[in-house]
């Protein structure tokens, strides 16, 4: 009877162990799916970036006679647009801008569970009187300033506004206009520091870390159950032998 009860108790403990592990794994998957890392929206330039870019473009446009602007797209949706005409105003086909150049960036974020990688496409657009070779050259030279695909993926808002401020310099290098006048900036409030971007390690490894913890707890539980049963077995064997010896002495006396 004791052996049967022990077997049933061992079976119940194993069932509880597997149930606990399954619950931990389910929670890990749910957290991984519903975490903020699944947000694939592209952030727009912050207010300081937009407000600081417009006056630079305005000064360049007045000096060179070319309008400059930017547009940031989340695949097909417009995230941010601006130009020397103001934040929120596109330079493309704008009245009074017969000659214009604009940087257009399309950023695509994928969920952390997807096998596809985040990507960005950068294009330089211009009015019909500007040759395609000039636009392609300006697009290529953005890399000299660190404005490559990786920069647009990491911080799209900063990258697209930064690229817009570089356009007047690159246009002058291609001979499209004279060098722009140096803008004079008045006193402005100190820009607030950017928030901590966090650690990418946790972004991609939530599920794996929690699953590993679950397996570790399961192994520890099995080890504890095994040690406990072994101790019980050792404590029960001497008692059985002592009883057997007493029975043998009784038979010998008879």
Automatic annotation (TrEMBL):
Organism placement in taxonomy: Bacteria, Bacillati, Actinomycetota, Actinomycetes, Micromonosporales
Record-annotated membrane-spanning stretches: 15-33, 206-227
Biased composition regions of type Low complexity, renumbered to the chain: 237-254
Disordered: annotated span: 234-254
Name of the protein in its database record: Uncharacterized protein
Keywords: Membrane, Transmembrane, Transmembrane helix
């Amino acid at each position: 009877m004791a052996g049967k009860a022990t077997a049933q108790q061992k079976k119940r403990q194993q069932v509880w162990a597997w149930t606990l592990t399954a619950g931990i794994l389910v929670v890990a998957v749910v957290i991984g799916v519903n975490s903020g890392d699944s947000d694939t929206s592209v952030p727009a330039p912050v207010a300081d970036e937009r407000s600081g870019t417009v006056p630079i473009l305005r000064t360049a446009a007045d000096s060179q006679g070319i309008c400059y602007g930017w547009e940031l797209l989340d695949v097909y949706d417009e995230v941010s647009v601006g130009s020397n005409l103001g934040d929120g105003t596109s330079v493309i086909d704008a009245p009074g801008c017969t000659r214009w150049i604009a940087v257009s960036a399309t950023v695509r974020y994928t969920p952390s569970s997807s096998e596809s990688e985040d990507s960005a496409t950068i294009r330089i657009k211009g009015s019909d009187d500007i040759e395609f070779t000039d636009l392609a050259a300006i697009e290529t030279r953005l890399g000299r300033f660190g404005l490559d695909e990786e920069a647009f993926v990491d911080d799209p808002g900063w990258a697209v506004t930064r690229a817009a401020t570089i356009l007047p310099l690159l246009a002058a290098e291609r001979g499209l206009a004279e060098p722009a006048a140096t803008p004079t900036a008045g006193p402005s409030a100190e820009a607030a520091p950017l928030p901590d971007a966090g650690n990418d390690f946790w972004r991609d490894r939530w599920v794996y870390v929690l699953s590993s913890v679950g397996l570790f707890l399961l192994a520890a539980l099995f080890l504890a159950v095994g040690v406990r049963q072994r101790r019980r077995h050792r404590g029960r064997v001497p008692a059985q032998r002592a009883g057997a010896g007493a029975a043998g002495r009784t038979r010998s006396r008879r």
